[in-house]
Amino acid sequence: MALYQCLLLGAPTPEQAASFSATFDECLGLFGLQLGRDYTLDRGIQAHFSEVTATVAVFFGAEGAEYTEATVLTRLGVPVVPVVSTAARVGAELPPSLRNINALISDPADSALRRVASAALQCLGLLPAQRRVFVSYRREESADVALQLFEALSARHFDVFLDTHSVSVAAEFQAALWHRLCDSDVLVMLDTPGYFNSRWTTVEWGRAVAKHISMLQLVWPDHKPSRHSRLATLKRLSTDDFVGTRLSATVVSDVALELERVRSRSVALRHANLVGILRTAIEDLGGAVEGVGMRRSVLLKLPSGNPLVAYPVVGVPTSLDVHECFNLCDTRAAAVVYDHLGISDDWVQHMDWLAQRVGAVKWIRSREADWQLADIEL
């Protein structure tokens, strides 16, 4: 049985159906998931539909589009992503039972439907619900663009970290900054000529590499990047991309769409890295990885033969992750797996407090996985 199901509903055009399917397949492929084996993508409810499989429905609105699957999907609590052409057309393009759900407005520039695919992946638990971005820049060279991206991406529902706007008064600045970097899906690097002349931007870049966070590297006109990371996607800017000291609206829109693609890849790579560390640790101890489960979980066999449901978390884990892990484990032992490096001391204390009160779920630091798995085995 597949782990995930996606249903296309409503009245998608042939172009919409083809674009969404291609992008959805591309994104799930990043997680190592295969169509047919691990997930299905169907037009409506088909005979092989399973009521116990994680499911999302994408409803493409249109004049007169019908929602005949409403009774079944409502009973099962399946999330639905409504897509409409404009905000003013919600009443005309969606059936009454979907009008109370916040719809996604089509973006003509998003021909690959990346925003729609990202929303579907979020509903399936493959991408975090929060879309976190960290802007790294030198104030002397690119403050206007940094602020422009903060405003534009926030308006597109990204949770953007900008040093001048995102740290609370009286908070310890550097600790708050590193904590937010750890929890970011993508680092947007404004690669100006003096970027690596600053100690702080250099450290931000290096720590993003250490955390395996993918980067969208915006290279300033006539500037040759002095350092490269395999985690970076380069976007070279020309003087025509600027209006004064800011980017043109077209470039900002391109950056937002590119972030959707880089974000999916970043989360998939970091998840794969956590799973790889787990695999090495458990195999060194004489156990094995037996497979993958729903919502990115991994099924381990301890050396004793006992099962363990591992729930790798990309970024900073929360009590919601503990809840999710608890729901997945049935009667089996369970553990949330995360990379603790860079997480603030206050949050680590909070997780320790939580661990003491939710004994059914253990915490495993990925960089100490073999050490802690040995303790669970005992």
UniProtKB/TrEMBL annotation:
One of its GO terms (biological process) is signal transduction. Pfam families: TIR_2 (PF13676). Transmembrane segments: none annotated. Residues 133-217 form the TIR domain. SUPFAM superfamilies: Toll/Interleukin receptor TIR domain. Keywords: Plasmid, Receptor. It comes from the Bacteria. This is Toll/interleukin-1 receptor domain-containing protein.
